[in-house]
Amino acid sequence: MRFLSKIFFLFFLIFSAPLYAYTEHIAAPLEDIWKASQEALKPYGILKSDEKNSILESRWIQEKVTREHHLFITALKKDYWRRMRIRVRLKKTEYSTRIEVRGSYQYRAVDAPWHGVWRPLKVTGQDRERERDFFFKILRQLEQDKLSKAL
Asked: What pTM, to 2 d.p., does this model score?
């Protein structure tokens, strides 16, 4: 019985994690994308930088957002503080480099005390847009790096 509970717990951990990340393949060297990703993350602060495994992770980025909660026909809007951490994972493939940008999101009500608990809420399209925006920030940095090398 104890073995089954461990299996169930492991199954729950694997399948309750967010399975979505913004992923694209780019025909550019991994080293160039690594440098561009570091530069793009630098303004937010880099928490983890593992060049061997090609993983970068930012510190928590906090911003105020408004989320809609749909109740029947009307939508209720509520302000939250959103805390987000961006993780970039790179992988060299045969012809390109795969870039995976994944965000971890936590929310706290604006009127909550400063020591209030941060909670994950259902991920919205607005959250996924932030991952996509960060991916394009990496591309802009990559382009800027290539232009500065050419000059």
From this structure: 0.77
